[in-house]
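Researcher: Good morning. I'm working through a list of sequences from a screen, and I'd like to move beyond sequence-only analysis. For each chain I'm collecting a predicted structure so we can compare shapes side by side. This is the next one on the list. No need for commentary yet; just the structure.
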Amino acid sequence: MLIEFGGTVLIKIKKIERILANMSGFFAVIALFTMMLLTAIDVMSRSAFNFPLTGVFEISETSMVIIVYLGLLWAQYDKKHIRVSLISDKCSEAAKEKWEGLAWFFATVFLMILAVPTIEGAYDSFVDKEFRWGVFQMPIWWVKIIAAAGLSLAVLQMILHTIHSIFHSRVRING
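Model: Good morning. Structure tokens for this chain:
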């Protein structure tokens, strides 16, 4: 009964993870496309007219943050991050799941170490309405919130993957 309940809960959580991963991936792709398009237009404008576009550098910086921190969830959902499988490749399937669970646990701890100060920094930036000086003043508090949210969701995702890897032999999830 407990395994069935846990399996049902994990299946629902995996569906939520898929939705969040796809949404974050969508916004990361939009940011990537925007950065590429603006950079290409800026390069053509510089080459053809010797006229750089104002603000492209600032928008590119912002786009990179969005790409990295929202792309984390998208990449992790399909387990596309680089992994070293020297030990786990020589193990049985059950042992491999346990090794992966241990790796996800340490990734969770590492991301928590990154997330806590990032959340604090995002809060301070929001309270101060922080902006960046450049060609024009650009608010950056919202970018810091995106970074904090991306790291926080990545922590939750790593916890889910840790639980899934540890209990994989008892609960099957078909994402």
